[in-house]
Structure formats: structure tokens, C-alpha cells
Specification:
Strand content: 35-45%
Distance between the termini: 68 Å
GO biological process, one term: positive regulation of Wnt signaling pathway
Number of strands: 8
Subcellular location: Secreted
InterPro entries: Growth_fac_rcpt_cys_sf, R-spondin, Rspo_Fu-CRD_dom
Number of helices: 1
Helix content: 25-40%
Keywords: Disulfide bond, Glycoprotein, Heparin-binding, Secreted, Sensory transduction, Signal, Wnt signaling pathway
Radius of gyration: 20 Å
CATH superfamily of one domain: Hormone Receptor, Insulin-like Growth Factor Receptor 1, Chain A, domain 2
Strand order of the largest sheet: 1-2
Shape: elongated
Family: Belongs to the R-spondin family.
């Protein structure tokens, strides 16, 4: 019984310590990445912890992942390896499905390959 209680206490303390570290890293990365409040730029709805959940009409929603954290951003164009998918309810960035594609027009139309690869026409 004591071993179980001790194990449980260690797990709780470890989780508390981990969440504290993650929180500091999150705050530090937000400050480095954004200049003026920032995470909610271009959003229709936003939270300080998760970023955007809805974007203005012409912007693309992109779900950025940093370790275990993920947050939404509203962008004018999608980052490398993603393409802009427009839909009536929400525009979003979707990952290129073609292997070794650096930039794509749609899920199956690569426009630029990663270094060391070439487009086949």
C-alpha cells in the first residue's frame, strides 16, 4: 500500500513539474515568435492558451505544433509543406501528401521539391 501511495505521489509531482516547465517554454516561445499580442492576430475567436479557433474570411487556419502543445494561427499563406484549402465554412492549411514535396498547389500537385529531388513532368 505504501509503495502505491509513494508511486502515485511521484507521478503527481512529476506531472506538476513537467507542466510548469512546459508553461515556461510556451511563454518564452510566444514572446520570441510574436511581437505584439500576437497569437490572436487575424482571428475571429481566440484564447491565450490555444490561439485561434476561427479566422477572418480570407485567412487560412494553421494548427502549429510545438512538442506536446498545439495552437491555431491565422495566416495569409500556408507554410512550406502545406497548401491552402478553401472551403465555405473555413479556409485551412493542409499537408502536402506527396513525399519529398516542399511546396504544393493541392494535395496531389507538387510545385517545388525538397532539396535533392526533382519534379517529374
Amino acid at each position: 500500500m505504501q509503495f502505491r501511495l509513494f508511486s502515485f505521489a511521484l507521478i503527481i509531482l512529476n506531472c506538476m513539474d513537467y507542466s510548469h516547465c512546459q508553461g515556461n517554454r510556451w511563454r518564452r516561445s510566444k514572446r520570441a515568435s510574436y511581437v505584439s499580442n500576437p497569437i490572436c492576430k487575424g482571428c475571429l475567436s481566440c484564447s491565450k492558451d490555444n490561439g485561434c479557433s476561427r479566422c477572418q474570411q480570407k485567412l487560412f487556419f494553421f494548427l502549429r505544433r510545438e512538442g506536446m502543445r498545439q495552437y491555431g494561427e491565422c495566416l495569409h499563406s500556408c507554410p512550406s509543406g502545406y497548401y491552402g484549402h478553401r472551403a465555405p465554412d473555413m479556409n485551412r492549411c493542409a499537408r502536402c501528401r506527396i513525399e519529398n514535396c516542399d511546396s504544393c498547389f493541392s494535395k496531389d500537385f507538387c510545385t517545388k521539391c525538397k532539396v535533392g529531388f526533382y519534379l517529374h513532368r
